[in-house]
Structure formats: structure tokens, C-alpha cells
Amino acid sequence: MVARTRTMAPPPASSTLAPLLRLAAAALLLLVAGHAHVALGIRVDVIRLPSASSPPFPAAFREAPAFRNGDECPPAGSPDGRVDVAMTLDANYLRGTMAAVFSILQHTSCPESVAFHFLALRRGGGGGDNNDDPLAAIRATFPYLDPSVYRFDPSRVRGRISRSVRHALDQPLNYARIYLADTLPADVRRVIYLDSDVVVVDDVRKLWSVDLEGHVVAAPEYCHANFTKYFTDAFWSDAELRDTFRGRRPCYFNTGVMVMDVAKWRLGGYTRRVEEWMAVQKQKRIYHLGSLPPFLLVLAGDIKAVDHRWNQHGLGGDNMEGKCRSLHPGPISLLHWSGKGKPWLRLDSRKPCTVDYLWAPYDLYKAAATALEE
């Protein structure tokens, strides 16, 4: 079961929308009927109408309520009990980031103890967006937060990125997670890294407190997945390359949800080790999937496995078509729209998947709330 939630009133809707609300709720109940442990704190919303195509600006988002620590929490601002969460800050995924932050704060008992660290492109780093707008939007939407922002220089990875199956996977910020340990200040010794297309429906402190048992990374591990598909025939036919997994039982894990021992990552030179595999990829194409495979080459079979409830991934479908997928059986603490399909885009296009209704209650985009009233 998920942690106690702070329930917010749903956006106003006219009486003509009541049938739509009932239909949405019925669809959701059918979806989760077979999942006895699905979080009761998840709420249902109705389909969102299309939003403007221009990049989001601060005024485009509603201000979130201020969440305060419970009695059992340390005083606000105290280093005791602090939970460090890192995410990238990209205008193209800002709506997802807003929802993710909102969900974390809403479902933890100690929201004032969560410290957010955002990695954003260095000013003038390209991408066509004003890189100050996402940060301004975060501060306007969560005025009580004091997030740390670090400017990531895209030139650090541009020469190392190889073309993958989806353009979004080739963006420099997608590789910024490799450099977390080099970016965060020395007093951050552990961090939770989250992609921007997640919502957390449990207390994030539970994930934070996992015992890494000497490993540098903890994440849900999926040993039933076909691990060989993450690498090319050129990789598996090269005895020297495939021997990198000798002595390990490599399993797939998704790098969109990780707990990282930052100090151990620094001491072990893991950034350099990941970069070395990216250099091999430039010489001999050994994988197709962006920043994930070099992580697997270095860490697969040598991570601390976390309960699958902490990454109900693949809700965005595959990387080519993004077709709808259903929830996996079992309890849920984190929902992850990895894959091509993103819930805000599918809701806006009026072609949502059923699971997208689980993301909608955390959407702070103004157009999504007001379109129903117009």
C-alpha cells in the first residue's frame, strides 16, 4: 500500500462532464481490478484537451500547494533525514517534471526534507529553447522549494553520443545522469535519480533508505528480460567484448530510477568506465539504445536489486510506436512512462491510454485544468 496522501480537490467541471468522469473512473477500475495491491491514493481525472504548442512558460503552470513536514520529521532545513533527488530540467519534458515533483511532495511524510537537484543545459547550450524558462517555471510553481540547479555542458558528451533508435534518446541531457557524481556537491553522498516521465505514489523515503550492501547503484532488476537484445550481433560475436560479463549474471535494469552511492561512484571512476564503452560504440556499433547500454556494460549483474514496485516501467510503450500497455501485476510505488508515448502528449491528442489517467491528477499545466471549463 502507498503512503498516506494529501488529497487535493479535483478541478471544477461542469455537470455535462459527469458522464465522462464516470466513464474514466470505470475504465480505471477495470484496469486495476486484477491488481489487489494497486495504490489506493491514486486518483482519476478526465481526458485533457490539447494545449498550446509553444514552450511552457512560468505562467503556464498552476502554483502547487505548500506541503509541510509531519510531526515525526526533522525540522525543515535540517541535514538529518534529507533525501536528495536529482532530475534533468528540459523544456520539452517540463510538464512531466512538474508532475513528478508534485507527486513526490504529495506522497512523502517529510516533503520539506526532500532536496531537489536539477541538471539543465548550460546557457546557450542549444536545443532552441530558452534554458531559463524551465527553472523559472519550477520556482513559480513551487515557490517554497529551494532547488539546486547545475548547468550541464552538452559539449561534454556530443562527441560521444551515437545515433540510437529514437531521436529523444540522443539528446545531451539524456546522458547527464552519467555525470551526476561529478556535478553534485561533496556533501551529497547518496542520490535518487529519476526520469521526468514518472510519478511517485509512495513515500520516496522508502526508496532512499534501501541498503545498497556495498553496491554503487540500486534499482529494480529484471532478469526475465532478454538481455541479449540490448546489444548487437557485433558485440556478441566478439569474444573479447562479451567477456566483459564474465563472472556476472547480467540482468536488465532501467536507469530512469536509480539510487546511487555518489561517493562510491567517484572513488570507483564509474564515469570514466561508462565513457570508455561509449568510445567503443563510436568505433564498433555494439548497441542501439542511447545511454542505457553503457550503464549495463559497467553495472549489469553488480547492482542492488530493489522491489519492482519502484519502477512500473514501459507505460509509454516501445521506442518505435509507443503503443498502449497495461500495468504489471503487483503493488506499485512508482509509475514510469518509459518508451515513446508520453501521457501529456497522448492526453492532449485525445488518444490517451488507460494508464495515462493515473498521471493526469498530477498535471499542473493550466491549459489542462481550464480547458474543461471553457
Walkthrough of the structure:
The protein is α/β, with parallel strands linked by helices and 374 residues long. Helices cover 27% and strands 13% of the residues. Strands 1, 2, 3, 4, 6, 7, 8 and 9 form an eight-stranded mixed beta sheet that branches. The chain has a two-stranded antiparallel ribbon with strand order 5-10. α2 links the parallel β1 and β2. 41% of the residues are buried. Pfam families: Glyco_transf_8 (PF01501). Belongs to the glycosyltransferase 8 family. Its main location: membrane. One of its GO terms (molecular function) is glycosyltransferase activity.
Show the helix and strand layout.
Elements: H1 18-32, E1 83-89, H2 94-107, E2 114-121, H3 132-141, E3 148-152, H4 155-158, H5 180-183, E4 190-194, E5 198-200, H6 204-208, E6 217-222, H7 233-236, H8 239-242, E7 252-253, E8 257-261, H9 262-268, H10 270-283, H11 292-299, E9 304-306, E10 334-336, H12 343-348, H13 366-370
Parallel strand pairs: 1-2, 1-4, 2-3, 6-9
Antiparallel strand pairs: 4-8, 5-10, 6-7, 6-8
Helix pairs in contact: 10-11
Low-confidence stretches: 1-53, 126-131
Give average pLDDT, whole number. 83
Strand content: 5-15%
> Order of helices and strands, N to C?
HEHEHEHHEEHEHHEEHHHEEHH
Number of strands: 10
